[in-house]
Amino acid sequence: MQSLNERKNNDEITSGEHISFWIDSTESIVFETLKQDISTDVLVIGGGIAGLTTAYCLLQSGKKVTLIEDGFIGSGESGRTTAHLANALDDRYYEIEKLFGKEKSRLAAESHTAAIQWIENTVIKEHIDCNFKRVNGYLFLHPSDKFESLEKELEATHNAGINTQLLDHIPNLPSVGGKCILFPQQGQFHILHYLKGLAESIVRQRGKIYTQTHATEISEKGCRANGYKIAANQIVVATNTPVNDLVTIHTRQFPYRTYVIAGKVLKTQLTPALWWDTGDQNSTWNSQPYHYVRLEDFDDEYYLLLSGGEDHKTGQADKENIAEEDRHKILERWTREKFPMLEEILYRWSGQVMEPLDSMAFIGRNPGDQNVFIITGDSGNGMTHGTLGGIIISDLINNKENTWAHLYKPNRTTLKIAGEYIKEAASMAAQYIDWVKKGGINSIQELKKDEGAVINLHMKKVAVYRDENEELYAYSAVCPHLGCILQWNADERSFDCPCHGSRFTKYGRVINGPATSDLTPLDFQEE
Fold it and tell me: What is the pTM of this model?
C-alpha cells in the first residue's frame, strides 16, 4: 500500500492536485488491470457511485457484469464530493414543479428519498462500515434571497410528498438569524468506505472489476480498453459526463467547479446535520451557486466540518475576476462567519458537477443508441442521482418497469428552459474566441516553478508547465474533444476546458471527460 506522500501525484488516485479527506482516510481501492480480450453481458464504464451501484443491481438480477475504471475505485468525482444524501434538491421544488408539474415533482422527491433508503438497506445487508447515519437537513436564506422563496419551497415540497417544516431558527447556527425549512430523514456516509463495501460485494457475487483500465472506441458492441477488446450486449457509461459521444448530451448540461474546505470542530459544539443556503440570486451563473455544510466523525474529540460552495463554470473563473486558487479563502471566510467554532482547516479540494438545464439528471438509453446507457447530470445531488442511475438502468436492461425512468430519460425535451439554454449555449460558444486571444503569459521566461499557462507560440496555442526541477512540458492547448482552448487552473494544477469540462493534469493526462485522449505533446525547447 502506498503512503500518502507516494500517492499525492498519482493521477489514478484522484482527479485533482488536492487530496480530499475521503481519499486521505481510505486505502486505495485497486483491482487487476485488464490484460486480455473478454466478453460479458453488461459492461459498466466508471468506478464511482453510479457505476458500482449499476454493477451491483445487475448482478443481483443475475447478469454477468464487468466494470472498468480508468484510475482506482472512487478516483473520479465520487471521491471529491461532500457526500450529502438528500431529497432536498439543489434546484428548488417550486422550480421543478413549474417545469414538470406536480406529479413529476413528486416522482423526483420519491426517487431521491428511495435512493437514500436503498443506500441504508444496502449498508445493512452488506455489512458496510461507512458511518452511515440519518440526519436532519436545514435550508436557510442566502442574503440575496427573500422569505417568499422559503414559503414557495415549503408548499412545493408538501405537494411533492416531503414532510418539511418551517422553523423559526436555524439549529446550530445562532450566528445566522431567520427561519429555515427542516428536511427530515436525510443522510450522510463516508463515500469511499461505502464504495469499498460495494466493490467487495460485487466481487463476492462474481462480478469482475478492472482498475487502471482506460476505455476507448465505445460502441453498441463494447469497447477497447488498454488495447484489448471487451465485447458486451449492453454498455453503461457512468463517467460523470459521457465519454461515448461527442455532442448530444454535452449541449444539455454544463460543467461547474465547486470548492470544499474541511476543518475540526469539537463534538460538544455541534450536532450532525446538513445545512444549505438557497444560493446567490444575483450570481453570474445560471445555477445560482449555494453553500452546503455537514459533519463527519474525525476522532473521539472532533468532528470534521465539511463546507462547500463558491462554484463557477469550469475554466471560466475569470468571468467573476476571482481566480480558482482564491475560492477556498472566500469559502473559509463564509464558513467561519456561520460556524465560528471552526478550528484548524485540514483539507481543501474541489470537484466537478454537471448541471443539467432542467434540474433532472440524464439516466437511460443514450440518444440514438439501443444498447448504450448513460448516467450523468448529477447536479449537486450526485450521491442520490448515482444511486438512482444504478436502479433505473438495471430495470431498463432487465425490461422491468420503473416509474422514474420517464422523468430522467436522456432524450426528453423541456421547452420551458429555452431561455436558460440560449444563455448557457452562448456562454459555451463564446469560449471559442480564445483561439484569437492572447495567452495567459507573454513568454516562457515568465513561468515560475510549479506553474502552468497557455501561451501563443509559433501560431499555436500551447499548454506549458514548468515543474519543481525547472523541466518544461509542452502540449497542444486544443482540447481533443471539440477543439476548445484550455485554461490553466492554478488551484488544482490542471488544464481545464471551458466549453465542456474536460480536464488534463499538468503532464497532459486526461482526468475528466468528455475527452478520452491525452493532450498531444509538442517538441519544444526553451529559447
Answer: 0.92
